[in-house]
């Protein structure tokens, strides 16, 4: 299994905060949000981070300060209009790197307390696992990605 942390967006909904800093690198309790995610990924899982050219230097600097190897992948994108979107970034990374392994995909700007070892242990290699958080207020939920179920499928 490999882990891909998606960090190639431009965070336009959070402007002006994210005009100069990627969402995943925004500080929370003294360190970048993405660092908390990296700490939760079991050591035996290889981690990749995909970002865009605009924030590449920031991620390279962050990468140097880690206690763990991270593979950085830079998408050929500089402006929001060129962005692949989350699923497009995933597809681009998989195709460019010839990935056929099981894959754990996480948005780099999410802070969570999920036990990743337990979550991964539920994966049986045949069925997709999805972790979501229930936001009770529908108006609040509309500000985030919304998962819709149909016949027990997302």
UniProtKB/TrEMBL annotation:
InterPro entries: NTP_transferase_dom, Nucleotide-diphossugar_trans. Residues 3-152 form the Nucleotidyl transferase domain. PANTHER family: GLUCOSE-1-PHOSPHATE THYMIDYLTRANSFERASE, THYMIDYLYLTRANSFERASE. This is Nucleotidyl transferase domain-containing protein. It comes from marine sediment metagenome. The lineage of its organism: unclassified sequences, metagenomes, ecological metagenomes.
